[in-house]
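I have a small job for you when you get a moment. Can you supply me with one protein entry, sequence and fold together? It will help me judge whether the discrete encoding reads sensibly. Write everything out right here, beneath this request:
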Amino acid sequence: MAASILVTGASGFIGSFIVQEALKRKFGVWAGVRPTSSRDYLQARKIHFLELDFAHPNELRAQLSGHKGTYSKFDYIVHCAGLTKTTNKSDFDKVNFLQTKYFIETLKELNMVPKQFIFLSSLSVFGPIHEKDYTSIREYDIPNPNTLYGISKLKAELYIQSLAGFPYVIYRPTGVYGPRDKDYYLMAKSIKNHFDFSVGYKQQDITFIYVKDLVDAIFAGIEKDVVRRAYFVAEENVYQSSSFSELIRKELGNPFVFHIKAPLFVLKIISLLAETASRLTGKSSTLNADKYNILKQRNWRCDTSPIEKELGFKPTYSLAEGVKETIAWYKEQGWL
């Protein structure tokens, strides 16, 4: 009998790729979605859908209990559901921390704890550290998140790690890009329109991970039956702020581009104005005070030796290869 896997946030950028890979690997796949979730990338017939209300513990208990009564518990859970931007700052804590806590408490109460509870966190939980010597962030460094997003993810991590014997695996990817992503798409769209923006004048070391490689890392952890571990996930190469935009420009046929480098204080003003407009319109903005703190961070190096040694995982995509595939997808879909 095929092992079962639940992917929460299955309709999202990363979640939809996890579902796709799980189907390839012959898992029994349940896509955790909301009633309003788009199912554009969840068209395969073998996908089972499970609506989950993480905001209301009683509803969540009924939904999971109903599933257990029919199918038994899940062998694996990938908790990908989360919030990366919002008009209400308190939502980061509610969604990324409290709802994760409700979810795990309900799983424990119903005796539905899986073999692995895989939590998608972020390198942002460590914040701006080692910015003088640009050494790699390591798992034993003291986290110092400077964003509400990073703080909420760190709180969830600390809660998960505090549970005695709980079979967690935490992944902390750096910048995740690839087809279906809308944040890096905005950069590609800007470059196509002949504008390339960068911020700050101090050295900025950036790392990336292609979405398909991140998914492979998750399944490498499943194959190795690892538990109670946390891993950074990044391509081994380190890039400068211009690297990504130059690769995008190449894949777009090298259009003429105005390169605009803004001081950090200008970006801060623009971010605060965008956040104010977001609150007034009720529409979340990609640029906001939280995003400003992410963009001004200068060191995104991280130590990936543990995941290489323990899971035998190494990314297969270089940034050039990943950008090539991503831009081709944007073109095919009519985004560019």
Notes: The chain has eleven helices and eleven strands. Residues 4-177+209-234+301-315 form a domain with the Rossmann fold fold (CATH 3.40.50.720). The first strand starts at residue 4 and ends at 8. Residues 271 and 288 are 4 Å apart (CA to CA).
